[in-house]
Amino acid sequence: MHQLNISLPDKKKDLYTLLNNQLTALIGDEKDVIANMANFTSLLYHSLKDINWLGFYLYKGGELVLGPFQGKPACIRIAVGQGVCGTAAKKQETIIVNNVHEFDGHITCDMASNSEIVIPIMYKKKIYGVLDIDSPEFTRFDDDDKAGLEKLIATLKKKSDLDKETDYFMF
């Protein structure tokens, strides 16, 4: 059993390095991707400042379906190409939105959200899902967040056995 006992640094780059080390230790030898995503969301939700929702949407049956998350109840299904999550999945690139109210087609699940970052998760050159993080602050996310979160996703993918989930996630 791992216990989180973190003194968080002020610099984002240092914070993400620490979180990556914590994630590696927290996952350990566990290969189950859903269990690892659950701990991933808890670790980040309780470590990042000014976050009101953090979680995964997983590609299943041609759409994004709600996965492990922390925060208020969320939209369950999102079409690829719709909203910030669906757009990131379709483009297969990270999207930072400084003001979600100005994003054409934004899907509002929590009225308190004002900015968002979505990182696509690719597996065997296909969309596996996305990591979605919302903040009540405008312009909360930047390139340091993008780089740090992309490294955390890389760690999650490396440590988890994504092949075991291919029956569940219909590519």
Kindly identify the CATH topology.
Beta-Lactamase
Which strands sit side by side, in order, in the main sheet? 3-2-1-6-5-4
Fraction of helical residues: 25-40%
CATH architectural category: 2-Layer Sandwich
Strand segment tally: 6
Assigned CATH class: Alpha Beta
Structural class: alpha+beta
Number of domains: 1
Task: Please state the overall shape, judged from the principal axes of the Cα atoms.
Answer: globular
The averaged pLDDT comes out at 90
Would you mind describing this structure in some detail?
- This protein has a six-stranded antiparallel sheet, with helices on both faces.
- The chain starts with 11 loop residues before the first helix and ends in a 12-residue tail after the last helix.
- The chain has a single domain, classed as GAF domain (Beta-Lactamase).
- The protein is globular, with a radius of gyration of 15 Å.
- It is of the alpha+beta class and 171 residues long.
- β2 (63-71) and β3 (77-79) form a beta hairpin.
- The longest helix is centred in the C-terminal third of the chain and has 17 residues, at 143-159.
- The model is unreliable at 166-171 (pLDDT under 50).
- It is 32% helix and 25% strand.
- The protein has helices at 12-27, 33-45, 83-91, 143-159; strands at residues 53-60, 63-71, 77-79, 95-97, 115-123, 126-135.
- The chain has four helices and six strands, in the order ααβββαβββα.
Characterize this entry briefly:
By secondary structure, the chain is α+β, with helices and mostly antiparallel strands. The protein has 4 helices and 6 strands; from the N terminus they run ααβββαβββα.
